[in-house]
Amino acid sequence: MNGHKDKGILLINPAVNPASQNKVVNAIITTVVPTSLASLAAFLIKRGIDAFDIVDEQIDYINDSGLARLVGNLKEPRIVGISTLTITSKRAYDLAARIKKIDPRVIVVLGGIHPTVLPEEALRHDAVDVVVRGEGEETFEELIGRVAAGRDYGDIKGISVRKNGRIAHNPDRPLIANLDDIGAFPYHLFKKNIDRYHSFSALLTSRGCPYGCTFCSSRNISGRTYRYHSIERVLADIALLADTYGQKVIWFMDDNPAADPRRFMSLIDAVMREGLHKKVEFHGSMRGDNLNEEMLKKARQANFRMIAFGLETTSETLMKEINKGETVKQVFDAI
């Protein structure tokens, strides 16, 4: 976006460090709609907060003059939120330092999986004022309200901050109980770059995963809690992507859309009942032990055309070591 002069909040999806991934992986990662920032934007919009800009550096890299313009145009409350993965953390810290040099009054907030897991690393950078841990929607909204009102924000649940020269971690914030409360996914905010996204039609139908795989970051955000949007909400998003944005492929971006097999079957039935399977095809990632022949046949009928399985090892011993909760054989049988 263009740094409108009436905006007080800037949200940034930083660029991936080219040295951290190969070109093939980068080509996929860097062209997916930033779902975390989109969800945050949806939450804010639903609550009447729309004075923000979003910059996705995977599409529009921010040079020094562009950053100076964006930060220089910020009005109160002057907050910059940076969504940070491990592969974007170097750029996030660099942006934070540059922002503070342009305007020391700006409050720089880091959120996302990397600062959630490593908040002390983030706060060792002087330019980082606040780390939002876990789900950021409610926490960030409260932070905006406090700063806008000129009130202290040091006791907000779900943040880590520096207090009296030391890093303090406030109690965790409870997870959002009803995902539909977040608000409609704001595809319109990214419409201008629809042809530049590898996957504009990112669809989130649930959050979290009930399994405890040792290698997965999901539980650091949601624990092992699994929540999902109402079927009505999901159908509305699919119809919007198909009818308004002309999408032909819908990508289920959930950690595990079939974690609750009965709900997944109900969703498939609803998709076919509404005739949406005649408009789009579906892709997604699932676990082998969640699927059976009946589910796969119905998924095929509903125009699922690609299902990806995470097969981290072909060793049954290692499957137990990583606490995958399924066997190699179950994945092979599903394939």
Topology readout:
Elements: E1 9-13, H1 23-29, H2 35-46, E2 52-56, H3 64-72, E3 79-83, H4 89-102, E4 107-111, H5 113-117, H6 119-123, E5 130-132, H7 137-148, E6 159-163, E7 166-169, E8 202-203, E9 206-207, H8 218-222, E10 227-228, H9 231-243, E11 249-252, H10 261-273, E12 281-286, H11 293-301, E13 304-309, H12 316-321, H13 328-334
Parallel strand pairs: 1-2, 1-3, 3-4, 4-5, 8-11, 11-12, 12-13
Antiparallel strand pairs: 5-6, 6-7, 9-10
In summary, what is this structure?
With 335 residues, the chain is an alpha/beta fold. The protein has helices spanning 23-29, 35-46, 64-72, 89-102, 113-117, 119-123, 137-148, 218-222, 231-243, 261-273, 293-301, 316-321, 328-334; strands at 9-13, 52-56, 79-83, 107-111, 130-132, 159-163, 166-169, 202-203, 206-207, 227-228, 249-252, 281-286, 304-309.
Q: Would you give an account of this structure?
A:
With 335 residues, the chain is of the alpha/beta class. 35% of the residues lie in helices and 16% in strands. The chain contains 13 helices and 13 strands. The strands form 3 sheets. The chain has a 7-stranded mixed β-sheet with strand order 2-1-3-4-5-6-7, sandwiched between helices. A 4-stranded parallel β-sheet has the order 8-11-12-13. The chain has a two-stranded antiparallel sheet with strand order 9-10. α2 packs across α7 and α10 runs parallel beside α11. The longest helix is centred in the N-terminal third of the chain and has 14 residues. It is globular. It starts with 8 loop residues before the first strand and ends with a helix. The relative contact order is 0.10.
